[in-house]
């Protein structure tokens, strides 16, 4: 039984992965592993077409559980590094379109987790950053993904300085995709997820795998594209497009 993570079905086709570890939703190894296990279950559920990741109304996550890190020896850190890194990247492995609904603070490991989502929607009072450098450490899971998202120079600025950014700067950097009133974060995330609740699940998952392939994405796209010709959604989609144009298909998800 998970202590910090719940999964709710907000609407048909939409799962809400919620993380609650009061008061600041700090992420230690146990919490990260719970998030990863829940994400894996969601990813394997064909009824789920889109995912919202949410902390609570006050805070998404204020970052790493530094008290845990302070107790680790170098040997212990080496032993847990792969598990923690993999867990913080769990959202990127979800086959469904995924949106992080971010309130309050999104720092450190919390931002690394959110970087794995396809979209980040934040309240206009949010602070974001990767302050691990101030503890003598570096982000374990976020450097490469941040660099791909906002470019190496801007990523180095945020990682080397550990500074916080406000929503206006975060949007200008491309770190977040939408800024709304704090009370509207969750509903805006649901509205985005709703667009995919009846979408072509296999094609969306294929597109995500191509994006995740990075520099090998061009090669990966060939296999993914060809494999979609075996799906029912491809048959439904092409026939519908020819008959009625885009947006009219009723996809079945396989």
TrEMBL record:
GO terms for molecular function: lyase activity. One of its GO terms (biological process) is fatty acid beta-oxidation. Pfam families: ECH_1. It comes from the Bacteria. PANTHER family: (7AS)-7A-METHYL-1,5-DIOXO-2,3,5,6,7,7A-HEXAHYDRO-1H-INDENE-CARBOXYL-COA HYDROLASE, ENOYL-COA HYDRATASE-RELATED. Belongs to the enoyl-CoA hydratase/isomerase family. This is Enoyl-CoA hydratase.
């Amino acid at each position: 039984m998970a202590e910090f993570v719940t999964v709710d079905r907000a609407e048909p086709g939409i799962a809400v992965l919620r993380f609650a570890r009061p008061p600041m939703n700090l992420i230690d190894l146990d919490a990260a592993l719970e998030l990863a296990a829940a994400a894996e279950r969601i990813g394997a559920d064909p009824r789920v077409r889109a995912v919202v990741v949410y902390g609570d109304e006050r805070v998404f996550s204020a970052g790493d559980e530094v008290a845990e890190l302070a107790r680790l020896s170098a040997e212990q850190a080496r032993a847990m590094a792969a598990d923690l890194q993999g867990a913080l990247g769990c959202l990127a492995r979800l086959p469904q379109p995924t949106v992080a609904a971010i309130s309050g603070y999104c720092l450190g490991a919390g931002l690394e987790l959110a970087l794995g989502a396809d979209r980040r929607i934040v309240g206009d009072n949010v602070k974001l950053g990767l302050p691990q450098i101030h503890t003598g450490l570096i982000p374990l899971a976020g450097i490469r993904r941040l660099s791909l998202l906002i470019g190496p120079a801007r990523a180095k600025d945020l990682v080397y300085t550990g500074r916080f950014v406000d929503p206006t700067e975060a949007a200008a950097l491309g770190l977040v995709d939408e800024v709304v009133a704090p009370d509207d974060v969750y509903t805006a995330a649901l509205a985005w997820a709703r667009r995919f609740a009846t979408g072509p699940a296999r094609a969306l998952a294929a597109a995500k795998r191509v994006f995740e392939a990075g520099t090998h994405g061009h090669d990966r796209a060939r296999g993914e594209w060809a494999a979609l010709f075996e799906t029912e959604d491809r048959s439904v989609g092409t026939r519908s497009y020819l008959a009625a144009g885009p947006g009219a298909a009723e996809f079945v998800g396989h």
